[in-house]
Amino acid sequence: MNVAAILKTKGRSVATATRSATVQEVANLLAAKRIGAIVIVDGDGPVAGIVSERDVVKAIAAHGARCLCEPVTSIMTHEVITCAPGESLDEVMATMTSGRFRHVPVVEGGQLVGIVSIGDAVKFHIAEVEQEATALKSYVLAG
Ligand code: AMP
């Protein structure tokens, strides 16, 4: 299974905010959408940064509630690892494991076309393993 197949089922929508958003606005978005990360757009490329709930917690722990009024650019990760739709699920899971993050935006032709979270990856991995088990069972039973 590849990333394109995952996006076909889960859809291509990505929660985004612009560089001018405050940490408070991004925290509101994370809570309202019940998600773990927001992709920051605008600037030169398709992805200017990413902010996960972990970044918000770290900023509050370090600076207190006053960080909520700061621009999101002050807490976001600027160097974002992305993937292409043609990448396999195994490759994306390896990227998340080695990078120690749980979200990978999908970029195609210079455009942000989706995002894969660790939750998506695990869900589709389990489905893949179940399909393989079913196929093996019917192969054994037929033999
Ligand atoms: P997460 O596990 O996704 O909550 O993110 C953990 C840390 O990695 C946070 O500092 C995020 O800003 C950062 N991060 C999340 N996704 C990515 C990514 N695709 N590329 C680079 N950093 C990321």
Layout of helices and strands, plus pairs?
Blueprint: H1 3-10, E1 16-18, H2 23-33, E2 37-41, E3 49-52, H3 53-63, H4 89-99, E4 103-108, E5 111-117, H5 118-142
Parallel strand pairs: 1-2
Antiparallel strand pairs: 2-3, 4-5
Helix pairs in contact: 4-5
The protein binds adenosine monophosphate (AMP).
Description:
The protein is an alpha+beta fold and 143 residues long. Helices cover 46% and strands 17% of the residues. The chain contains five helices and five strands. The strands form two sheets. The protein has a three-stranded mixed sheet with strand order 1-2-3. Helix 4 (89-99) crosses helix 5 (118-142). It is elongated and about 65 Å long. Bound molecules: adenosine monophosphate (AMP).
